[in-house]
Structure formats: C-alpha cells, structure tokens
Amino acid sequence: MRNDYDEMYGRDGAVRPHYGAFDDWLQSTPALQIEHKRREAEIAFHRVGITFSVYGEDAGNERLIPFDLVPRIVPAAEWRVLETGLRQRVHALNLFLGDVYGEQRILREGRVPRDLVLNNSAYRNEMRGLAVPGGVYSHISGIDLVRADDGEYYVLEDNLRVPSGVSYMLENRRMMARLIPEMFARLPIAPVERYPDALLEILREAAPAGIEQPVVAVLTPGSANSAYYEHAFLAQQMGVELVEGADLFVRDDTVYARTTRGPQRVHVIYRRINDDYLDPNVFRPESLLGVPGLFNAYRAGRVTLANAPGSGVGDDKSVYPYVPEMIRFYLSEEPILHNVPTYQLRRPDDLKYTLEHLAELVVKEVHGAGGYGMLVGPASSKAEIEEFRARILATPDNYIAQPTLALSTCPTFVESGLAPRHIDLRPYILCGRRIHVMPGGLTRVALREGSLVVNSSQGGGTKDTWVLEGGA
C-alpha cells in the first residue's frame, strides 16, 4: 500500500484509468529502447542549449535540467476545476494590485494588514496612482500547485514578477512528441504550442492607447542570467527583438531601440529584469542592466512594462495567506483552490507554535525564492534546526511556516529504474482582455529520493504535463 498520493497508481497499486494508455506503452516497450529514447532526449537538449545557470557553481556555471520520460497526466474534469480556480485567483490578485496602488479599500477595511503591504520591500510607492493599461499588473503569472496525500490540490505560492520555466514546458512537449508520437495520435492531449502566440497577443493588447502595430521587445539582463535561454527562446518564438538595457534609450519619455536601421520605437517591453534594476534614475542607481528614464516613459503612458513594477507585493509569502480573503473581497466568491495552511511568524501565537514544532514544519523566508532561505524540518539535522531557530528569533516577521505536505509522486526514471519521486506543477496564466490558462504547465520533480525540493537550482528535473481533452 502507498502512503503518498501517486499520480499514476492508486492506493492498491492499480494503474489509474487516465494513465492506462501510457502504461500499455511502457509495458510493451523494451527497456533498451526506453533507455535509448532517454539518451536521445539528453543529447537533443544539450544540442539546442537548454541549460540552466546555477549561481555559485565553479565549473562552467551551467548544467542540463534533467528531463524525465514519464509524463504527468491530468484528466479533463480535474483540469477544468484547476483552470477555473487559477483564473479566479489571478483575477483577484490583479484587482488587489490595482487597489493597493489606488484606493486601498482592502487596507482601509482591515481585510489585509496595512503595514504588511505598505512596509513590504516589494511595494513600490512609485506606482501609487498610476493607471496601468487594462488594469493588468501581472500579464504573465505562474501559480505553483502541489497535491497532498488527500488527493487535493493546494496553491503553494504565486509568481507575479518574472515567472520562469515556460520554455522548458514547450521544449518538453516537443521532445515527447518526437520520442513517442504514437501516444499523441492515440490520446486527446491538449496542445501547448500556441503559448508564444498567446503571449504576443496579450503583450500587444497591453500597448499604449492608439498604437495599431505595437513593437514588442523582451528585455533580458544578459547571457549571464540563469534564465537567459528562456529569454532568447521566447523572443525568437514570438518573432520580436531580444534586447539588453544598453540596446534601449529614452528620449522625450519615449523608448527606442538602437538598430542598424536607426532608432525604432518600442511600445511594450516584456521585462525579465527585477524591479530594482529597471531604471537607475528611479530604483538602484548602480544598476547597469536597466534603462535610464524608462520609468518616466512608463509613467507617461508611452511604453508598457509587463509585468508591471510593484507586482511582487502580490506574491510575497507574507501576503500569500490573504489571497483567499482577496477573492472574497473583490469577487464575492469562495476560493476554488485553497492555500496550504500557513503560520505567520509576525503573530506571537504562530511564532510560539512554530518554534515548538520546527522539526515538523517547512519554514520559508517571505522574500525567498528558488528553494533558498528555507528549512525543511523533517529533512534537517538538529544543528540546522537550531541555526534556523536563531535566524527566526532575530527577525520573526521575515518568515512563514507551513506543514510538511506529503507531495504527490509520479514514477520517474532514476539510476535504479522507475521509482516514485515528488512533484509539483506550475501552470502559466496570461492576463489581457481575457485570462488564458495554458493547459498543463511545467511539472517539476525532486530527483533525490524523499526530497520535497523540486527547484531546478536545487537539483530538480522536469516532466511533460498532459491535459486530456474531452469528458474524461
């Protein structure tokens, strides 16, 4: 009998119905042929340069993100619930951002603590009173979902600033269609290939008023950035320019790109640079990555930045516990997707409970990301727990804590063969005149046995995610 919820196998070990066709393929394909396909995928990913830079490593600073041949499969009925819940959540978060930079009704009514938002390092006073096109702050969102041992999905965190990973979702699908095309002929797998077109569409929709043929560019920090491959990939797929800060300049509150044909106006910038580095005249003066005058051009309505500066206050882990209340406040609806129960260490009772149960909990920095700055109690030594205890006591407001969920598992190829490994799911939501939820998303897998940390920067891998269309 299995304790964790397994995506492919029931508690009794029987294959779940939506995995039946894939299991047939798995059982009928010789092990040597499967190994050959796995090797083929690895060579192909290396050939096209699908690597991830890991800061702090010495040799070369880049490595391949491991790709697994066993997909995560989501039945149609299950996906419909997730899709509706994701659309609801992103809608409410955008309304929240518009409110906290506008009338601040939710703060005045005490539904979200005022100091938690206004004193948050991700809150940008420069955005106060600034009307953003269409009221959209987070055009591209990545919402991390986990499935617990009760079979229910929970939102682990929201990513509203510069969510990454979508290029791996697209490349994983290309690879699976190449390696096992017969499965795509046999199963009604929802396509994800339209993502670049949908992204370009919502970016063009966000252009300043009156622009009929908006010019879009992707702004990257440069080739040293860990997600540079993705920046270049998306620019190429959309057919737009990939630019660095030095390629742009501002004149009369208008942004131009330097080209061999002379200056070309840019109307929409899909920025993959953090707020702090966007404009040295407004944010960090030492930044060499941004564009002097960019924020003034944005404030004047002469260019659109996606995602909007200041969006990060909506995905800060200290604000996360209040998203269900945002849904009730702005939409008069009950949340479809639930949060993981969360202890806010700024509260004395929650702090006391957390300190007494550190060995059982996951503790996270409210501004942390990428699996850094966190304690996984059950997987930590006594010395690590005590060291983290001291950090919490020094700045309790800087942390939240959550139960250690038994994340669902999915069979994964490892050195010893096929074995269950813990996974999560990051669907991508595009917000313009309508909210588009891409079917599936990026499934990340923790390759170390028993590990719950799926982040690529922490040794995790990825899987293709198949959403089955129809009534299944």
TrEMBL record:
Residues 71-446 form the Circularly permuted ATP-grasp type domain. InterPro entries: ATP-dep_Glu-Cys_Ligase-2, CP_ATPgrasp_2, UCP005522. Pfam families: CP_ATPgrasp_2. SUPFAM superfamilies: Glutathione synthetase ATP-binding domain-like. It comes from the Bacteria. Signal peptide: none annotated. Gene3D superfamilies: 3.30.1490.270, 3.40.50.11290. This is Putative circularly permuted ATP-grasp superfamily protein. It comes from Tahibacter aquaticus.
